[in-house]
Structure formats: structure tokens, C-alpha cells
Amino acid sequence: MKKSARLLAAGATLFLAVGSTGYAADIIEGPSVDYCRVVGTSNLVQTDNIVDLKNQVVQLMDESVAVANSSEWIHSSRPVFVWASEAKVACGKAYGYLKTNYRDDDYLNKCECFHDRMVEYMN
Questions:
Q1: Looking at the domain assignment, is residue 17 inside a domain?
Q2: 117: domain range?
């Protein structure tokens, strides 16, 4: 009985020591992933003309929707479909804000970032 208790205590100690170094379930304290490493500063955010900005966002959104609806990318092993889906949502939200003449820089950055990630995985 004492031997099994010691083994259990040693196992628990080992689990806590090894398990505490991982971040699998800890999304707040875990390492951040830079999904937008391919774009840097968004060109959309730097566009001053609202009409041009709307046109650019709609173009990125239309391209993302087309890719997200393409069976070629839906069934692909590459993450193109995932990024296309993310891009169409982010661009759609950015465009929705632009229709009310409000520039949401966060969604503009996400729109361009996710679209660029989509294109990166397509090539």
C-alpha cells in the first residue's frame, strides 16, 4: 500500500512538473502566434479615400468568398479554405463598418492579413 502511494505521489509530481510547462489549454498566458507575419502594416489601414478603401475591401472579400466556395480548396489538405473563410468574415465586417463610414482598423488589418494568408497557402 505504501509503495503504490509513493508511486502515485511520484507520478503526480512528475505530471505537474512536466504538464505545467505546456500551454495547450491556457489561451491567455500561452505564447502568441503571429498569423499576420506575411503582411506587416496593412495597406488598407493606410488608404485615406473611403471609396477606394471600400472597393479594395470588396475585392478581397469577393476573392475570399470565391475560394471558400471552391470545391478545389474545400477538399484540399492545405489550409486555404480556413483562411478564405476567415478572410470573408473579416472583410465582410470591415465592409459593414465602412458602409456606415466607420473605419475599423482591426477588421481592416484582419481582412488583409487573412486574405494574404489564403493566397500564401494557395501557391
A1: no
A2: 32-122
Query: Would you place residue 57 in the very low, low, confident or very high pLDDT band (cuts 50, 70, 90)?
Result: very high
Burial 94-109 (b: 16+ CB within 10 A, else e): bbebbeeeeebeebbb
- Of 34, 49, 21, give the one whose Cα is nearest residue 109: 34
Q: How far is CA 54 from the centre of its chain?
A: 22
Q: Read off the C-alpha cell for 96.
A: 459593414
CA dihedral defined by 81, 82, 84, 87, rounded to 10 degrees? 170
- Taking a C-beta distance cutoff of 8 angstroms, is the pair 84, 68 a contact? yes
Mean pLDDT confidence for 71-96: 96
In this prediction, residues 64-83 reach a mean pLDDT of 95
Q: Round to whole Å and give the CA distance between 108 and 103.
A: 8
